[in-house]
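User: Batch of two.

Assistant: Item 1 of 2:
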Amino acid sequence: MTAPSVPGTAADRRLPKISGHHAALDGVRALAALLVLLFHVAASGGYLSGGGGAFTALLSRGEIGVPIFFVLSGLLLYRPWAAAALGLRTAPGTGGYLAKRALRLLPAYWLLVVVATLLYFRDRLGDVASWLKLLTLTYSYDRTPWWGDYLGPKGMGQIWSLTVEAAFYVALPLLAFVLGRWARRGTDVDRRARRLLSGTGALAAVSFLYVIAIHQSADRAFYGNWLPRYLAWFAAGMALAVVTVWAHAERGPDGPVRRLCRTVGASWGLCWTVAALCYGLAATRITGVSRLYEVNVWTSEIELLLYGAVALFLVAPVALAPAGQPMIAGLLGNRVMAFLGRISYGLFLWQFVVIYVWWKIAGHAPFSGVLVLDFPVCALLTVGAAAASHYLLEEPVRRLGSRSGPAPSPLPGRVAGGRFAASVPPPATGGIFTDPPPEPELEPGIFAGPEPGDEAAPGGIHWS
């Protein structure tokens, strides 16, 4: 029987990368962050109002960067649990996982809360309840926020998606446990992997059912900012995680899953063309005006489907291709995209503060301006703020969190020839998650950071 591929061998280099640093995914993060920034500059500058033509319609869907982030989160964060369900390693410890997620997510976000409060709502400095809700990312569960909508106070309008991301972080260990129990009823790797895929499909179905349910409520804007509404996008990434790990554990040197991965990776042009076509279709009124102005349940369901398709077809070739695939690495793993991916959490956090600062400097009122001037200036200023946040705050905290202990070891003798038999060589001579490669569970889709050992990689480490 055939054992899983050994890292570093010729066979392994033909498979998807499932541990360590993946430079091209940093480029995907950078692209998603820039899409969201462009959308917010366009929306806050008034470029999306008053009708407009095809260009305005395309701008109005820059929010599609959010499902890209969510797919990345599902892919990178669920992958260790998928490997554990297939018997390739031990499951991540919930306490350590949550602690590292908190260290990655909260310090820079807390700084944003302080800065936004001092700039825009000093009258709330003594409001303890508001501080607690903002600092714990639970304000989206307040039905009557004092700022008047469900997105967030001034300077933090984009943080609604971070509350969804945080909810996924907290829910993931439980979701992974349930999926793992379901998968372990299978007697071999293939059956377990298929069970995991059917389970992620069931999670995706929750979102479509939830959309129907909240459209029966008069307050769907409130319930629309909760995790179940977006679970399908996370589930798409989780399914990709299962496929990438399954390819390493599959029986035989050239099984159907491995061929699928190679085919999708080699078909990056076709996949990205499909993503672009889905984006164009999503920019029509078939998805309503936008996520915030859903017309009816059907436009909401189609938006959920098309936005997810854009994210899936964009990420899938990168996730399934062999590491270092030349075209993907050149387009998404180059130094510029790597740098922007490395600081992309800051790009996400600081963009509205930068936009408002630019308005004040330029002296023009909200919903007025010139996009060809506003976007380059806001992008440059946001990159500066994000770089400062990354190197002065996020990276030092990340280093602190990386001291939390050694990575879990693979389980020797768990998978061989698709059955759970003791014919796999021990970690010293094989296995997938061998030391010292860093564990990927610390890379969130939206907000990941470098892991121990990544600093030595060419170009540095990059986030989510």
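Item 2 of 2:
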Amino acid sequence: MTASREFPATTPIGSRVEAEGYVAMVCFKHGPPQLHGVELEWTVHHADDLHRPLDAAQLSNALGVHAPATLVRGSPQLPLNRGSLVTVEPGGQVEISGPASASVPRLIEDTAADAAELTSLLAAEGLRPGQFGLDAFRPPRRILTVPRYAAMERAFAQLGPHGPRMMCSTAGLQVCLDAGEADQTALRWRALHDFGPALVGLFANSRRREGSDTGWASARTEATFGTCAPFTEPPPLDGDPAEAWARTAMDAPVLCLRRGDNWDAPPGLTFGAWADGALDGSNLAGRPGANPGDGNTGDGEPPGDRPTYADLDYHLSTLFPPVRPRGYLEVRYLDAQSGDGWIAPTLLLSALMSDPAVTDQALAAAAPAAGRWFPAAREGLDDKPVLQAARDLVALATTNLSRIGVDQDLITEVGDRLHCIVDDTHRRRAS
């Protein structure tokens, strides 16, 4: 996300009201829902010892010219053969994200090819992608040394143990969908949230952490929600989504103040307060590496006490709600899946959002579990309302997979996989 032409990146923001207006405008782009996207993330392990700490140099060697600059300074970060860029998270998790596509079958084909290519690159260095949404074997350990992650780690560490876990030990599957026309956006925003508990339970696989049972079906969700509550938790869904998200972004703490070599923000500073002048006259004095007078702001930004639109764009990238609006809607609440397991949830969400009438039916199906995020994360499908909603959503999605253009073989395969998950749970509960 970048500042629009009407808002040059280096322009200072004059007030919280200005900043809210910008967020509401750029985070919810309206138009016919056409494009689909998916981002796959994995923890990375030594193939011969899943418990051994990951070495940044070995990961760099594996990724080669595809490595991001956060791992290898000056890297060209060339895309994989089908167009996906590789990024690396603080603990060495790797992620691929390809171009959005109007064709779901093409999206699946290209992403699968790039995932296979990445797996081959890792295997050549004795590495392999993880199978779960949370590192089941190792404690969190940051291997990236860039100022962003150093500042975030220090800020999150003050709030408890979950921040370092979220940064360094979690891996998610992200499905991206258009926000839709202006009169559809609120419905699509609510639907993706109301589906959340059922889908968290349906695809939960991160029960173990550092070799021990956490007691949570999705300990990844526990870590994410606990990182910086309430801003990493599900938001209230009343009112206009764009206005509500803009207020949330203003009330959220600033995690990275990109000035000098140390990006730590003053404790308690919110973006709204910064935009309203909370740092006016401070000149950021006393912060190691900060020298506003020489223009060294760490990222090409002008010196001064007011945030710019580039600062606001950057702030938005440090917010981690279960669904993040980025012009489109980025679903972030799913555990990473093993192998090609990512295909089923991607198709399920695409089918449920394929037509307003289907989405209306899906909202009714999801209703028993709507808002039951924590029971879903703790108990998974053992929570009765979550299981009921998951079964009904699976049934609805599998009867509508043809709407998104996938062939019958894949419809059958995905339908069998999804029904197997919910039916096995139902039989186990009944026995």
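The radius of gyration is 21 Å.
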